[in-house]
Amino acid sequence: MLDHIGLSVSDLARSRAFYDAVMPTIDAACAMVVTAEETGGTYEGAGYGRAGKPSFWIGTGGRTKGSLHIAFAVESRAQVDAFYKVAMAAGATDNGAPGLRPHYHPNYYGAFVLDPDGHNIEAVCHKPE
What InterPro entries does the entry give (predicted)? Predict the structure, then answer.
């Protein structure tokens, strides 16, 4: 249903460093960077995705009011664990260590961190072990 989503961040360089570290754990990477010159204004951003298609964007424009929850689907519980470990090392705040969340469904294995702007970022695997 969604093609892409974007978040405004308060410090693009800081957020890029965070997501550049975290995204490889979920088989994603920075797929595109746009400059203010390219957008014809003041917006600058970085798009992350898989197979070269940016589907998660961060960019200038001031901090998003309030916090958002973004959940990235991954293929294995090991990826959830790696996402959490790398995110914490990159400066995230713990918002829920890796583990089963059976109140969602029996195989829901996720981890939650707060990114540099306080957004609740999750990696989740829906597969049994």
Answer: Glyas_Bleomycin-R_OHBP_Dase (IPR029068), Glyas_Fos-R_dOase_dom (IPR004360), VOC_core (IPR037523)
